[in-house]
Amino acid sequence: MSLAVDLHDVAKTYRGGVRALRGVSVQVGAGEIFGLLGPNGAGKSTLVKIMMTVAHATRASGTVLGESIGHKQTLAKVGYLPEHHRFPSYLTGRQVIEFFGALAGMERAARRKSAARALELVRMEDWASRRMATYSKGMQQRIGIAVAMVNDPQLIVLDEPTDGVDPVGRAEIRDMLLQMKSEGRTVFLNSHLLSEVEQVCDRVAIMVQGQVASQGTIHELTAASRRFEIVIEGEPPEWWAELGRVRRERAPGQATDAAPGASRLVLLQTEATGGQGVIDRLRSEQRVILFAATVRESLEDLFLRAVNDPLTGQARAPGAGGGK
Ligand code: ADP
After folding, report:
1. In this structure, are residues 256 and 232 in contact, taking their beta carbons and an 8 Å threshold?
2. Å from CA of 85 to ligand 1 middle
3. Nearest ligand 1 atom to alpha carbon 207
4. Nearest-CA neighbor of 74 among 151, 182, 184?
5. How far is the CA of 311 from the centre of ligand 1 (A)?
6. I need a labelling partner for 41 at 20 to 30 A (CA). Which of 146, 240, 292, 308 fits?
7. Would the CB of 307 count as within 6 Å of ligand 1?
8. Which residue's CA is the nearest one to ligand 1's atom 5?
9. 207 with 307: CB under 8 angstroms?
10. How many distinct helices (H) and strands (E) make up the chain?
11. What is the torsional sign of CA 117, 122, 127, 128?
12. pTM exceeds 0.85, yes or no
């Protein structure tokens, strides 16, 4: 796999001593959508800023689009949507995009054309002649994404692109990311929104307190948690206890539509075949089976496990743990 981003052992200590990154390695394949996940303060923006040469790493090695980090000319092939961006409110959306095209050194005709294409991608053609001040947060984000696309980048780095965007807008932004990918671009996305990342990313890294806790495809990361689950109406039979984990449903199950009071058996063996005998016995006992399937941990479970303290089950305090 050719790598669009290949970072090794990136560390950053801010003045004042905050250790934002403690040796981060991240690999992003060319042409994939990569999601960097993590709670606020994990160091996601810091990593992106280092890639974009906006911040200096205390220690770093690796490449972006095949050139060492910090290689300014490479930035011409990269698009960047910073977190908390602010564009001049008196400019129209189109003017903002063309302005950034000019900053990227594009000729007038080229940037006009490119701005038009970017406006189409973010579905803002009809609003392009209005001032930024009149836009909603979601529309401003769209213009931000268009700005990141104006120089026809190979790599697009988006820091919380759906920040402040409503669910419909978020779904549209996911479509934009997929379109970027279909055009052969690499997308690097920072997000604290799991469902977002789960739906579009080929690979993810989960970052916690300046370190990568796990990295891979969502399939790889959740594979270890595969198990067979059976949900029945009413009380669990006594013989379940020796087979696996038994739980009573307190709230209606979302995926399984189990009513409160239903019982769930989580079989420790992972294969569906292992569950068939249990199903036979339940049927012979006239039990109503509501659900039986192989399930795996969601990205959310994985994320919470990475973020929460294994001892207390509570979120680790930001900045706590891991001395200098
Ligand atoms: P994230 O993007 O995951 O929310 P950040 O990279 O913004 O995380 O921040 C990581 C840590 O670095 C946080 O503890 C944050 O307070 C700190 N930090 C970020 N920027 C600065 C800065 N300019 N000066 C000092 N500390 C900073």
Report:
1. no
2. 16
3. 3
4. 151
5. 26
6. 146
7. no
8. 43
9. no
10. 9, 14
11. negative
12. no
User: Ligand 1 centre from 14 Cα, in Å?
Assistant: 8
Q: Locate 256 and state its tokens.
A: 């399984």
C-beta of 10 in contact with ligand 1 (< 6 A): no
Q: How far is the CA of 315 from the centre of ligand 1 (A)?
A: 18
Q: Ligand 1 centre from 41 Cα, in Å?
A: 6
17 lines ligand 1 (CB under 6 A): no
Pocket test for ligand 1, best of 45, 47, 188, 192 (most atoms within 8 A of CB): 45
**For every one of its 324 residues, what pLDDT tens digit does the chain have, with 9 covering 90 and above?**
799 999 999 999 999 999 999 999 999 999 999 999 998 899 999 999 999 999 999 999 999 999 999 898 999 999 999 988 889 999 999 999 999 999 988 999 999 999 999 999 999 999 999 999 999 989 999 999 999 999 999 999 999 998 888 888 899 999 999 999 999 999 999 988 887 788 899 999 999 999 999 999 988 888 878 888 899 988 899 998 888 888 887 665 555 556 677 888 888 766 677 789 999 999 999 999 988 888 888 888 888 888 876 556 566 655 443 333
CA proximity to 301, closest of 218, 245, 243: 218
Rg, Å, the chain Cα set: 24
What is the residue with the minimal CA distance to atom 17 of ligand 1? Answer: 20
For every residue of 175-229, DSSP letters joined together read HHHHHHHHTT-EEEEEES-HHHHHHH-SEEEEEETTEEEEEEEHHHHHHTT-EEE
| DSSP-derived 3-state class of residue 252 | coil
